[in-house]
Fold SH3 domain-containing protein.
Amino acid sequence: MSHRFRLGMASALVSLVLGSALVIEQTAWAYDDQVIVNSPGDGFLALRSEPTTKGGRRLAKIPHGTTLRLGVCQPTSNGSWCQTSYQGLTGWILDRYVVSVDAVTANRSRMTGTTSSGDRPVMVGGDPDFSGCSAFGAVRGLKRDGDGFLALRSGPSSKARMIDKLGEGDGVYLCDDAGNGWFGVVVYPPNPMIDCGVNEAIVPKQPYSGPCKTGWVSENFVEVVAP
């Protein structure tokens, strides 16, 4: 059986740790690093057509808390200017106003007293031509003489903490694939009036932050019912 998935924390994490500016010492960025806009003062970060504030033009205002992926970076005396894309526009941002996703996760762990070991957000979207999650599935094949449930976990591993228990036939949106036999899912809600918000395009790719439960399940007990 073939599946269409797009690999990829942010909205939930941002509300927790980016209420005010987060100070992180960052000396260098790597291509494709994932970062979060950290500009609570203005509420946005300017995406510029050139790597300078003295030339070019402002292409867009990227809201505080938005997750981005970096392209090439150019060091300057004021910090580094890095290429990124936002809502179909490609331009430059100043790295003084972003923090790495890893730094935000670590900060959340310190604030809550919990460990992030094994935790991984479920990424959704990334392609304007497709819905936020690539398929819909159902829990299948639970053993009658087993536990009778499928564990929904915080990361793609049997060692990650269990968030919830899913039963036979429970529906899940298939949104992410860890490549190790674990699917990142958004759980179809008991109340069908609740919209999980993944049936439409979501750009850019980002951690799921909607009203439905999310986590990771073993692909051995999920059957795709609709692409």
Q: What stands out?
A: The two ends are 11 Å apart (CA to CA). Confidence is low (pLDDT under 50) at residues 1-26, 108-116. The chain has two domains: 11-112, 123-226. The first strand starts at residue 34 and ends at 37.
